Amino acid sequence: LLELMENGSGCLNGSGAADSAEKAQQQQQCPAVQLSERNREAVRVIGQYLRELGLARSAEALVLEAGCPLESGAAAQFRSSVLLGDWDGAEASLASLRRALWRESSWSEIAFRLAEQRYLELLESGAHIAALCVLRGKLTPLQFSPDRLHRLSGLIMCSGPEELRQLSGWSGAAGGTRQALLDSVEQFFPPSVMLPPKRLSVLLDQAVRAQVSRCRHHNTSLSPDQLTLLADHSCQAAASVPSVCSQVLDAHQDEVHVCQFSPNGRFLATGGRDCVAIVWLVEAAANPPGAPRVRHHLTLRIGEERGGVAWLAWSPDSRLLLACAAEEATEVIVWEAETGDCIKKLKHRDEDSLTTAAWLPDSNHFVVGGNRGHFYLCSVDVGFEKAWDFIRVVALATRREDDGGTAVLAADTFARIRRYRFDTMQDETLFREDGPVMSMSISQDETLLAVCVASAGVHLWDLRLRVCRRRLHGLTHGAYLLHASIGGPNQDFVASGSHDARVCVWHHGCQAGDGAQQHLLPDKLSGHGGLVSCVSWNPRHHGMLASASDDCTVRIWLPASLAAAALAASADGTGPGGAGFSSNGCCSST
């Protein structure tokens, strides 16, 4: 093809449709090549792609030299008639293609779509009498879709083209609707007759997605069409996945049991046995750009009589922080994160044990519960509102439903994950786990649920299908609670604490090796000196991970490239929390 372009061959330079004598001469200059069936298919797909790009003469030259037409003669005539608006010719070509359809019953639908386009174009041009003839003589006899026909008949009363396009949702004859019509009817024909639309684009997209699915460290929001086709896709771990500790936060005086990033990624809350919750501010350094660091914001005290912080939950608007104390505590506390003001203290019964909580989407209501059978719906405005008795709750999450309501997902002491609706007081069991549930975490898009199961690892559930998508193994179990977290721009990563003082990170979407493999082994991050009880992905800085440990510290993990730059900025005092920051005892770099 390049040689033809360089030589200025008539195969490329002809204007309009060449007559038969010129084509015969061109065929002598460009003799057909003997191609295998696979190569003939490739030529057709490439020719279609060139034509879609507007390179019609290049597509014609390719087809001529290969001796391989893109589609049958009747299909080519049908395409040409539709694009030119020759509707009688399109109907005649369709009649000759009728026997080539996948299903005979599809003919009436194609004929209806052709007549519909013809009818709308006539209305757009103001030819109402001709449009009425098409409505009565073409569309009505087909009896394809009475509702659709009724809507079309109402359009004849439109006062002009603008109202027609607005009411019909049709962009007009000049708006690419003819090509869209062709794309919609190509599905009814075998590929040997008419290629599916954008076939090469689809194949390229599938190839890139397959490579991405095998990339163990893919942690980017780039879509497949933004990735290069010139080399196989492979992400470098150093540039995408948290692997290096960039900060050690040592403000706590005892074991740290929980860490949670706020939904906007701006705050990190940590809590543990020292009976304080610390709010940290996440800042992205200007130099180097995109290297986030945290600094101490404020310390919130819950009182030593409560036995420490058992759980922390951020409101969806990232404004309020809710704290549940240890097992014997009977109240929960809500703070305003920016100022540290105590907004609400809730206590219902002296025998309550409220150790877990989750917010509803309105950032006012929340649910709290514990394993003594107390399960409440509360609000910041009112306090306790509703109760579900005798429900021994281990962990809570919330999820929006299709009807606009909110479902509460509760893991109970019977290893069940159950769905509760406080607005209708309905409940059901979604699924049952293999063993006692320790904790659970829901993805940002609310489609995945990571459940930590005692002695069984982390199970990743698809909430739409109610099936276990992955069983993630490799962490070390013990008698203490572990919390997992789902993260990454595409929610493809799961991280969890472990009793061996390491952080486990899985790419649950990775199909590397055996594509049917259900038991994926994690990458492990070392550095802590004690059990890692909780981890949290930053929902905005997708390469940022926090981990809380019994060694009284919280560690911040970044990709190696960002971590090195952040450490350098901290050393010379140019980054957030740089020179002088570690002197307050809250943070040191490692």
Descriptive notes:
- The chain is α+β, with helices and mostly antiparallel strands and 590 residues long.
- Helices cover 28% and strands 29% of the residues.
- It contains 15 helices and 30 strands.
- The strands form seven sheets. A five-stranded antiparallel β-sheet has the order 27-28-29-1-30.
- Strand 7 and strand 8 form a beta hairpin.
- It is elongated and about 85 Å long.
- The relative contact order is 0.09.
- Mean pLDDT is 84; it is low at 1-21, 512-519 and 574-590.
Supply Rg: 32 Å
Q: What is the CATH fold-level name of the largest domain?
A: Methylamine Dehydrogenase, Chain H
The proportion of residues forming helix, as a percent range, comes to: 25-40%
Going by CATH, the homologous superfamily of the largest domain would be YVTN repeat-like/Quinoprotein amine dehydrogenase
Classify the secondary structure makeup into a structural class. alpha+beta
Shape descriptor: elongated
Second rung of CATH, namely the architecture of the largest domain: 7 Propeller
Oligomer: single chain
Report the top-level CATH class of the largest domain.
Mainly Beta
β-strand number: 30
Count of the domains = 2
Strand order of the largest sheet: 27-28-29-1-30
- How many helices? The count is 15
Overall pLDDT metric: 84
Percentage of β-strand residues:
25-35%
Which stretches are low in confidence, meaning pLDDT under 50 for 5 or more residues running? 1-21, 512-519, 574-590
Major sheet description: 5 strands, antiparallel
State the distance separating the first and last CA atoms. 58 Å
